Give the backbone structure.
Amino acid sequence: MKPIHLVLLLATLAAASTLSGCAGGGVKAASSGPRPSWVEGESPRWPRSQYVTGVGSADDEEGAADRARGEVSRVFSSAITADTLLDESETNVKAGGKTTTTFSQQVALNIRTTSKKMLEGVEIVERWKDGATARYYTFAVLHKGKAMAAVTEKTQALDADALQWKANLDGAADKFERAKAGVRLTALLRGRLELENDRRILGGGALAASVDAAAAKAAAAKALSSLDVVVIATGDHAAELETGIVTGLVASGLMAKRGSPGDKGDVIVESGSGAQAVTGGDERWKWSRGTATVTLKDGREDKAFARFEVSERAASADAGEARRRAASGLAKKAAEKVAAAITAFFEE
């Protein structure tokens, strides 16, 4: 099962032809009479106590319908936002004449649901064309009861998966298997949080979970922290790439230590980066191009399981600032790709 973002798919226009028991017949043609009251977002036929509603307008009917569906889905977007708390620490340990620097970042859960959740059952029930402007308007509705049933079904399925992965986590003897179970369990718990938010929006209460979320998160974090993860960054943008890689690892629940070429670990992330001044069409601007190659290895076999390249081009009136911006862009891209690669690795 892939990481849970739990986007409930929007029914396609072809499938959304009727609203059972309400719309009757086929898709309603756009009327061209007086301006209907539902254009303002309210309709006695589709009360908000029973429906989530949305109005869309555009120069064409299809565009208006898409926007109306988007207005319905907007209700389920970015509903939870928490400030990020970043606590960084760094320690130096000397052993056998060698100094090892370990750094970690503790990030309070920053839930930003940016993906629109398109709930099945969203349908276009009214259409109108403004004769004066030739602009189309559509009215989309989502029956709360039907949406609640879909959310409940998906939550129960997720709970069953979480229970199985919690058992795998508790029973695994190998630390990679425990980490794998921890990654999946963490993703499932994050997905359940999103579904609980959907239930609140739809007017429902919380469902009892099959897994104690707090205990499961603690167990998953312990399993992931048992892995020895080494980051080895070299090149012109080594410091920035190191920060980006660590950010991606932390997003996956892993902590890391700074290493040198040749160091061993359970998971090894290596990056090499370069910076190059480039010319642009305007002499007032200084351009810099940064590139990096990142390789992630399974330390048990010293075998790469992911490799990717990233590049960034940035400009500024100051050459140093252009270089800094390019490095920052590289770090951000590396963070996203590292997080995706780690998740894919533990979900094989």
In short: Confidence is low (pLDDT under 50) at residues 1-27, 78-95, 99-118.
